[in-house]
Write a structure and sequence with these properties.
180 residues, 2 domains, elongated
């Protein structure tokens, strides 16, 4: 006689949770060191959600054993340490005053997004027409070179950050100043 499907799922929860944890941990470490951010950020977010589901099923499957752990101080000490660490990051972020438009690179990105293509193109060492062609080739709706990147994003139904990335695609960073 074979097992019922929900029972089979519960038996598979631990290996599923372990596999999802391995991917989440790997992508998390890569993100921490800023390696391949554009490629793995979305994967990490979705795998994180899958990990929450797998962990909830794992807790359901092992509720009796976890209740036994709850009687010992080790689980409570670990829980307090994790919550204190999380609070050390979350509380300052929630209580810090908000800067208008963000700081540094966010503020610069905001200015570039609002500027017309006629102004942005010379910054990218290209012509407004060439920039418009690059954006059109990427599937954006370019009405004129007097439109801003934010306008193009709205007209094309694309996120502004994506349009900014397309505009800057292929641009080599400037070499550092010579130390002579």
């Amino acid at each position: 006689m074979s097992e019922a499907p929900p029972r089979k799922l519960l038996r598979a929860v631990t290996p599923i949770a372990a596999a999802v944890f391995a991917v989440s941990a790997t992508t998390g470490v890569l993100l921490f060191f800023h390696l391949g951010e554009r490629l793995i950020k979305e994967l990490h977010e979705w795998i994180g959600l899958a990990f929450v589901v797998a962990a909830a099923l794992h807790i359901t499957r092992n509720a009796r054993a976890l209740a036994g752990h709850a009687r010992r101080p080790t689980l409570w000490i670990a829980t307090v340490l994790v919550l204190a660490t999380a609070a050390a990051f979350i509380v300052p972020a929630l209580t810090a005053p908000q800067k208008e438009g963000g700081g540094g690179s966010r503020a610069l990105a905001s200015v570039v997004l609002r500027a017309p293509l006629d102004v942005v193109a010379p910054l990218l060492d290209t012509t407004p027409a060439a920039l418009a062609s690059r954006l059109t080739a990427a599937g954006l709706t370019v009405s004129s070179t007097s439109a801003s990147l934010a306008d193009l994003a709205a007209a094309s139904g694309r996120p502004p950050r994506e349009v900014l990335d397309i505009a800057f695609a292929g641009q080599e960073p400037a070499p550092p100043p010579s130390s002579r």
